[in-house]
Amino acid sequence: MTRLKSASRRKDRPAGILREQDVDANPFRQFTAWFDAAVKRKIPTVEAMALATASLSAAPAVRMVLLKGTDARGFIFYTNFGSRKGKHLVENPQAALLFHWPQMERQIRIEGTIEKVSRGESARYFKSRPRKSQLGAWASRQSEILIDRSQLEAQFKQVEKQYRGQDVPLPEFWGGFRLLPRQFEFWQGRPNRLHDRIAYLREGKTWKIVRLSP
User: 19, 193, 197, 202: which one is catalytic?
Assistant: First the structure.
């Protein structure tokens, strides 16, 4: 087996420090502070996050999706309800998110339960999407087997013709999910793999802040 070498820390990039006394008492505000810092750093696709789900039989799956909104309750993303992740989230409404910004040596892990967003909220977001993305949602039967690429392209042309000259409606099989956090972890890279890990654990209506060993 070939042993992979980890990337060395750049000498011109000092290690960050994450201390309990420095973080916000509210993990949502702490998330916003780190997210805004990543935006300011101009990290590409800063909203990209790994979404981990599991089937009823506990078979895991993970993929990259885009964060499309946050509110006082949780983190919102959109998908086809008939996709593999969509089926997992309905059958087993628990999931985990991971944001990784290597340029800042930071990760944020979020675990929690899942609920669907309202139909009205999904409709408002769907309307804001580019028209061809709206058509793509109708054309793709996400996660189903295709004979070849031409089948997908033919389906797109069909819905493009169907909705020509009119607004594209929100599909019944498409919409948003919201992850309601029960745990956050903020990870800051440090030398010698002695990383800082600060976790927020939900206790009723409050959050307990703890440090985890790396």
Answer: 193
